[in-house]
Amino acid sequence: MESAAKIIKPVFFRAILAFVFLTLVSVVTLSAQGNRRAVNQRPASPAAPADYRSKNFLIHTDLPAEEARDLLERLEKMLVIISTYWASPNRTVIECYVVKDLANWPAGSLHPAGMQSVEGGGGVTMSRTTYRGGQIVAAKSIVYATADRGTPQHEAVHAYCAQNFGRTGPVWYSEGMAEMGNNWKVVPRKGQPLAVSCEQYVIDYIKQSEPKSLNEIVNSQETTGDSWQNYCWRWALCHLLATNTNYSARFRPLGLGLLTKKPVSFNQTYGSMDREISFEYLFFLKHFDKGYRCDLCQWDWKTKFRKTNSVRPLSSKIEANQGWQASRVLVDEGQEYQISTVGEWNTATES
């Protein structure tokens, strides 16, 4: 593996340098993940890094063979989900260095920036994109990640975006969607709301913290790889916008515009809906947990309300398991009203 690493990397960079000489612009970017936990630095039984391949991935890793194949399977499944969401099939094999224990890796086998990120318990994606006339003519990303269950998937989302769109977008979107890709378990389908499936520490942190405002998340001068806490807020916003049907129809075009450097922005897309998003965002943060669906915090902002009386009663149809729904009734403080219900219902699944 040591010789393979020494061969692959110099050839790659020589090829890129030669290519750049013939083109106009070559851009190098880094996308890093906030540290989740430190990598085990204690001496371990030797496990020489080996190569494992699938249709869309090449991973160099010191994971046991069974775990490496399991990782490939998870990466491929995730790639189906994110490429379906962005409607763009993966173009190029994604190369990853996945580290379980740095003691197993020969000196010089990892890029210094990659090794530094892995030492801190995180990951980094190094991308090089070459343009001619404003069009992408070549893109290559290499992932360096700890073997922590979520880190390779997170970084692979960055690599997919860089290789297929030429960029990963602004920090809030780039890192929020990388966490989305890591957490998504099924392909999003119309009419089938996605449930929360993030790690428990994300839920615990958000529940115990003062909510971070939309403006802080989107417009602050933050950097990739800054902290896992910031990643939690970015995930929460992206999850809400991607899965709540009040906002998802605008969110996907916004994301594609950010990835392809179109003249779009969060404020331009959602400026007229700022109050509604802020309300539902805070409502989501208060009530979400594993398995929670964003449509359950979705409010009906379009229904018309009117006053009622004994001569003119009003009927509303309330659907089970559909979250908060409008009554369509305007009420006055201190006034008494009569309510009657028709139908069958229960508060839990019947055995």
The coarse overall form would be elongated
- Give the overall pLDDT as a whole number: 84
Number of strands: 8
- What number of structural domains do the residues give? 2
Tally of alpha and pi helices: 11
Which blocks of ≥5 consecutive residues have pLDDT under 50?
A: 1-27, 37-45
What's the Cα radius of gyration? 24 Å
Q: How are the strands of the largest sheet arranged?
A: 1-5-6-4-3-2
Percent helix range: 25-40%
The end-to-end distance, rounded to whole angstroms, is 56 Å
Structural class: alpha/beta
The main sheet comes to:
6 strands, mixed
Strand content: 5-15%
N-to-C SSE string, H for helix and E for strand: HEEEHEHEEHHHHHHHHEE
Could you give a quick summary of the protein structure above?
The protein has helices spanning 2-22, 65-85, 112-119, 151-165, 171-183, 200-207, 214-219, 228-243, 248-259, 266-270, 274-287, and strands at residues 25-33, 50-53, 57-61, 94-99, 123-132, 135-146, 306-307, 329-330. The chain has 351 residues and is an alpha/beta fold. Helix 2 packs across helix 4, helix 4 packs across helix 5 (171-183) and helix 5 packs across helix 8 (228-243).
